[in-house]
Amino acid sequence: MLFNSPVFILFLLLVVALYFSFPRARMYTLAAANALFYAYAGLGYFLLFALIVTSVYFISLGLRGSRSKLALFAGLAIVLGNLFFFKYSIFIIENIERLANFRFDFSGSFLEDRMILLPIGISFYSFQLIAYLVDVYRKKLQPAKSLLEFWVFIALFAHSAAGPILRGGDFLPQLRKIKSIAFNNRRTKLGLAFILLGLVKKLVIVEQVAPYVNDYFQNAAGLTGVEAWIAAYLFAFQIYFDFSAYSEMAVGIGFLLGLRLDLNFKTPYLSSNPNEFWKRWHITLSQWIRDYIFIPLGGSRVANWRIYANLILAMAISGLWHGAAWTFIIWGLYHGFLSAGHRMYRKLITKLKLESFTGSVLYKVAAIAVFFHLTVIGWVFFRANTIQEALVMLKKMTFVHQFNYQPEMLSLFALAAGLYILHILERVIVSRFGRLSLWWQLNIPVIIRGAIYAVVATILLVFLFRGEGSSFIYFQF
């Protein structure tokens, strides 16, 4: 059930109406909504998801007992076994075949076509379950009080397909006060604003950019150097606006229900270095990688070479999390080396006592421009179908020699530039949202505001009902 579909809008309206009509039954309303939302994608995968959640819940009851370590290993085995089977089994088999120069015969089995459909949101709910098990085991989190509470926490329809990744310490206390949540006009307006923002990003921006990205990457070998750069630029904005659209709609749905979900993006393409980027891009995943991989490996408390190795390994795991393909692993390694390189660079700057230079506005602008292009280069591996295809595009981007200025190419370059300007405006609006909202309320007459809202709603409805929208990119992860 896509957020950008009429079916979901009707579903959401029904859920919100029931939620506020029957306050005492809110947990049951959300539990049923979660089940219906997930079952809509496939009854079999819903039953599997429910079985995994139920199993982990009952296993987690033993995390505070004398066999807590055994319970932890059992819970992790179920979660990781489910994840590895659906997401990585074919990848592992094919790489074993490649190394051994041997091909397994799966004829007559369900693996005959060498494809396993991924359950929606499997990576997100797996990481959420892992965090829950580890936090309860470490006594950093009080366990869920019931299977109902645990199901609503893990399977909340607002985020279950593509995040943000929720933490029990932040979300379970909210569920325990859910009956006392009162309808709030201001919070509802804020929720609707986030949902509308997400719909505009997805329907008006992403759906228009995606066809060009698909065409260019399908014809990577035939692109000129300039076209390869345009393809990479457009994909950078496609994936940002697509993923942030889903995340912001999830936050908006949370506001409608009186629940707080974490923002996942804070204008990441205005980052000047890798450390800043990962505090702005897919924030909840970055925090998960930090807390459950980087810090357990030793974090920054070990020798320098270990810190660099930990950064690279953590980012490689992040790349593998995104997909069972070497292109994703290389993308993760690339960002790992960027992070390690930036740490070395900062040490050099400190040693040479050049901090005042790096604090200048000119340096900041140059650093943002350089790192944005480094990020765009990385996205080529993320989007390309094969490593060879990515290398072909990067070669063309490195040795730009054909300047075939066709009208379409110029218009697409202008589109990419316009999207970056829009990204900057997004930062300005978010940082001044309170003041701008107050100005809007005080200085724009109600009639004009209503007319603008009506126009925006009409445009979105036209996009919604003109056909089934495309899936969000991160649904495949």
From TrEMBL:
This is Alginate O-acetyltransferase. One of its GO terms (cellular component) is plasma membrane. It is a multi-pass membrane protein. It comes from Paenibacillus oryzae. One of its GO terms (molecular function) is acyltransferase activity. Keywords: Acyltransferase, Cell membrane, Membrane, Transferase, Transmembrane, Transmembrane helix. GO terms for biological process: alginic acid biosynthetic process. The keyword Transmembrane applies. The keyword ATP-binding does not apply. Belongs to the membrane-bound acyltransferase family. Its main location: membrane. Pfam families: MBOAT. It is found in: Cell membrane. The chain crosses the membrane at residues 6-23, 35-59, 71-93, 114-134, 150-169, 190-210, 216-236, 307-340, 361-382, 409-425, 446-465. InterPro entries: Ac/AlaTfrase_AlgI/DltB (IPR024194), AlgI (IPR028362), MB_O-acyltransferase (IPR051085), MBOAT_fam (IPR004299).
